[in-house]
Design goal:
With 451 residues, the protein is an all-alpha fold. It has helices at residues 2-7, 9-24, 31-49, 60-88, 101-117, 119-132, 144-177, 182-190, 197-204, 206-217, 220-225, 227-248, 258-262, 274-288, 291-304, 317-332, 338-348, 359-365, 370-381, 385-403, 409-415, 421-432, 436-450. The protein is elongated and about 105 Å long. It has 23 helices and no strands. Helices cover 72% and strands 0% of the residues. α2 (9-24) runs antiparallel to α3 (31-49) and α4 runs parallel beside α7.
């Protein structure tokens, strides 16, 4: 009984996600096709799990088998249509529904053969097949049950294998074409980098397609004998369904980070995370670049905080709004304010020593956007972020050179966050007015005079 509950988990996951998507994403372009995909997946998972039901009525096996076949042959085409809709947002052309001929053909043929044999005969045949494997097929040659087996097992598995292999090829081709790699997924999960929902879903669909291939190749008799494998596949399918469904909630956005996903329910906060949650909400408004929304937000801020003005309030547009937002939050958010977190991360934690550090990476680590960080740096230090990072690196390089007088320029450059020795040399000369070697000679002369 416990094993059956685990096997039916994917069906319950589909039901949960179906309701969740109806509540949160029914206005998105992909809502209808994704709901159909969830419904079809749930029907397939339910029908597939009924084979392990302890008290299933045996005559139902024939109907269950037909439902499973029809639903399974729809999964990969529906998945492709969902990804297509997510990518282009355009309406489907008539030819894109031609794949419906496959499930209709399989279902119609199965129903005809099922009626010719009789539900009891088909139930006895499926029971024998599920318990003893394909070795019993020879006993049914010349009977309608044998034709039923050919169309609903052999032809079905060939079609599903072709669909699954084609899907894997398509996913691989598209990832290569768009220059997407597992490194992007690692940066998304480990470094907080933003990815497009399409890119995430392309990676998310790879494992389910592989599971489909495994389920198609392995027969029910083998899975019944090795129940542990069925349980593992069921748990994996459940996780895949939940992950794909959750990612689908962000289909209307161009880019999404793991931090955005964690803060999807903006108003589910407490006193400890209130500031960062509200900042996320504000940043999302700014990122959308909706002029009307920004104008309304600007007017609201002026009403709530009329005394806080920024240097560039007359600049207009999103940048002025960002400045007002920062002024408002900096005045009300004590230890949570962005400047304190920026200084802690970049200066005290020495993030500036990371070669190739970008404003996007800093913004992601601060859970904000790059426009906000750029405005913060300009308002606070009166220089741009690249100049600030180079100044910090040069200051650090001075101490490093004094403590490592025998170090070569390549070693100094690497230790101080520069991409190359030439880059270090050029920037040092720009900031200090002299090359590193001449600066070191000058320090040595002062030391000698002092001595």
């Amino acid at each position: 009984m416990l094993a059956f509950l685990v096997l039916i988990l994917p069906a319950f996951a589909c039901l949960f996600c179906f309701i969740q998507n109806f509540i949160f994403s029914r206005r998105t372009n992909t809502f209808v096709i994704f709901q159909i995909l969830l419904l079809t997946t749930g029907v397939f998972c339910l029908a597939d799990s009924l084979y392990a039901a302890p008290a299933i009525n045996r005559p139902w096996l024939g109907a269950t088998n037909l439902v499973e076949i029809a639903a399974a042959s729809c999964l990969i085409p529906l998945g492709w249509m969902y990804l297509h809709k997510l990518n282009s947002g355009s309406r489907f052309a008539s030819w894109q529904f031609l794949w419906l001929a496959i499930p209709v053909y399989l279902l119609a043929t199965g129903i005809i053969l099922h009626e010719l044999s009789g539900s009891n005969a088909i139930a006895a045949f499926l029971d024998d097949l599920n318990n003893n494997g394909s070795g019993v097929i020879s006993q049914y040659k010349g009977k309608a049950e044998y034709l039923y087996y050919v169309f609903t097992f052999i032809v079905f598995r060939v079609i599903m294998t072709v669909e699954a292999v084609g899907a894997l090829g398509y996913l691989t081709w598209y990832l290569i074409k768009e220059k997407m790699s597992p490194r992007d997924l690692r940066r998304f999960t480990k470094e907080g980098a933003a990815c497009s929902p399409l890119e995430l879903q392309l990676f998310n669909f790879i494992l389910p397609v592989i599971i489909v291939i495994v389920k198609v190749i392995l027969q029910n008799s083998f899975l019944k004998e090795n129940i542990w494998l069925s349980l593992i596949l069921s748990l994996l399918i459940t996780l895949c369904i939940l992950n794909i469904s959750f990612t689908s909630l962000f289909g209307a956005t161009g880019k999404v980070s793991l931090s955005n996903m964690r803060h999807i329910v903006f108003y589910n906060h407490n006193n400890n995370n209130r500031a960062i949650i509200l900042e996320h909400a504000i940043n999302d408004i700014l990122d959308q670049e909706d002029e009307n929304g920004i104008a309304r937000l600007q007017r609201k801020l002026e009403e709530l905080n009329p005394k806080n003005e920024t240097k560039d309030a007359d600049a207009g547009g999103a940048s002025a709004t960002a400045g007002q937002l920062f002024a408002t939050m900096a005045g009300t958010w004590d230890e949570e304010n962005l400047l304190a977190r920026f200084q802690q991360l970049v200066v005290k934690d020495k993030l500036f020593l990371k070669p190739g550090l970008s404003i996007t990476e800093i913004a992601e680590k601060l859970h904000t956007n790059k426009t906000y960080v750029s405005k913060l740096v300009n308002n606070t230090y009166s220089i741009g972020l690249p100049e600030l990072l180079n100044t910090l690196r040069i200051d650090y390089a001075e101490q490093y050179i004094l403590n490592h007088k025998e170090a070569k320029q390549a070693e100094i450059a690497e230790a101080c966050g520069f991409l190359s020795a030439s880059s270090f040399n050029n920037i040092f000369k720009k900031v200090k007015g002299v090359a590193p070697g001449m600066w070191m000679d000058g320090i040595s002369e002062k030391d000698n005079k002092t001595a």
